[in-house]
Amino acid sequence: MIRFLILSGYFELMMYLQVSGKLDQYINVHYRYLIFLTMFLSLLLALVQLKIWAGSEKHQEHTHHDGHDHGLTKPYQRAIAYLLLVLPLVVGTLFPTISLDTTIVEAKGFSFPVSKESVGDPEMNTQYLKPDTSIYYNKSDYNDQMAQLMKKYEADQKLEVTDENYLEVMELIYNYPNSFVGKKISFNGFVYEANKNNQKYDFLFRFGIIHCVADSGVFGLMTKLPDNMTVKNNQWLHVEGTITLDFFEPFDRQIPSVEVSSAQTVDAPKNQYVYRAF
């Protein structure tokens, strides 16, 4: 009976995340089919466990006469197994989802790896500025993929950045900045103002998920807004401008930026995440 309740709980949790829209904050929406598969298997296995439980007396007699018990016979073994199975349900049900905003950036700061040695363990670090999918490929395959992706945009003199292509465009800009300098760009994001060494820097960011929340991060570009424009953190803007390279003193290097020609305040989207398409 306990197994039935746990498995049915998985089915109900997946359905709740799907119906409530909270699923988008955990995994890349392009992998939604995996959730439907999980729901189906959880329901199927729950029904199997219900049938086994209903005929448990007959099953126990069979086990006794057969002389073998292939399950977990000791109480502490069963307790540990059930605890491990229940834990994701407890976390998914009781722990609230967190709305990401600039307070996350302020708490962690952000970094931009300048060499392989500075990256450390990519599975343990939140990504910032540049979406980096190279950790999922060997160097040759990654370079081939980037070169193939570059063909989609290299002839465009203006980049229309959307929710669908946001992460791949940002990755290309950081990988091949010189190829994009001088091109026009338009995109939406929320404002983050960094104050370093008495110098103010404005960024326009989106929170993104590459595969799942474990490799999520905050991605975007430094922006040079018009002098007469006043902005505040978490304010959503639509900007248009020209891609340039500017020296960012905290990193001691040049990074891609946008010389903004026009900027308008916009409403925050219903789903503030963007996802990497593969």
UniProtKB/TrEMBL annotation:
Organism, scientific name: Enterococcus hulanensis
Protein name in UniProt: TIGR03943 family protein
Keyword terms of this UniProt record: Membrane, Transmembrane, Transmembrane helix
Spans traversing the lipid bilayer: 31-50, 79-98
Domain of life: Bacteria
InterPro entries hit by this protein: DUF1980, DUF1980_C, DUF1980_N, UPF0703_membrane_permease
DUF1980 domain residues: 2-110, 136-276
